[in-house]
C-alpha cells in the first residue's frame, strides 16, 4: 500500500492525491496534523533522502523556528527528527512511501516508475 504523507490543505498534496486516484493506485493519506508523525519514521526518511531534500526551508514554518532548532536541522542528526516531529509542516510535501522507496515532492515520472505504470 502506498502512503502519502502531508497536510490536507496543501495544494501540492491535493494535486498528488488526485494523481494517485486518477491512476487507480491503491493508497492511503496520512495527515501530519491529524495523525501526527513520530521521530523514528522521520529518522528513516532523513536516512533515505537527507535533510536537504526533506526539510522545507522556504516556508513560514521553517522561518518561525528558533535559530537553535534551525542549527540542529542543518546537521541531519537524530535531534533533527525530533524537531521535525514537533513541527511537521517544516517537512516538504508530499512524502510518498512506496514501501521500499520514498519520494519527496510532486514527481509523476518517478511515481509512475515506482508503481510500474
Automatic annotation (TrEMBL):
- Identify the domain of life: Bacteria
| InterPro entries in UniProt | Arsenate_reductase-like (IPR006660), Thioredoxin-like_sf (IPR036249)
What the record says about family reads:
Belongs to the ArsC family.
Name assigned to this protein? ArsC family transcriptional regulator
Native organism is: Thalassospira alkalitolerans
Amino acid at each position: 500500500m502506498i502512503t502519502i504523507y502531508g497536510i490536507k490543505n496543501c495544494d501540492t498534496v491535493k494535486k498528488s492525491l488526485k494523481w494517485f486516484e486518477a491512476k487507480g493506485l491503491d493508497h492511503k493519506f496520512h495527515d501530519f496534523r491529524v495523525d501526527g508523525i513520530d521521530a523514528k519514521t522521520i529518522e528513516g526518511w532523513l536516512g533515505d533522502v537527507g535533510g536537504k531534500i526533506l526539510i522545507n526551508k522556504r516556508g513560514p514554518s521553517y522561518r518561525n523556528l528558533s535559530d537553535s532548532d534551525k542549527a540542529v536541522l542543518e546537521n541531519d542528526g537524530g535531534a533533527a527528527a525530533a524537531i521535525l516531529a514537533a513541527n511537521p509542516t517544516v517537512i516538504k510535501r508530499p512524502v510518498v512511501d512506496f514501501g521500499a522507496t520514498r519520494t519527496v515532492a510532486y514527481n509523476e515520472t518517478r511515481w509512475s516508475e515506482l508503481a510500474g505504470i
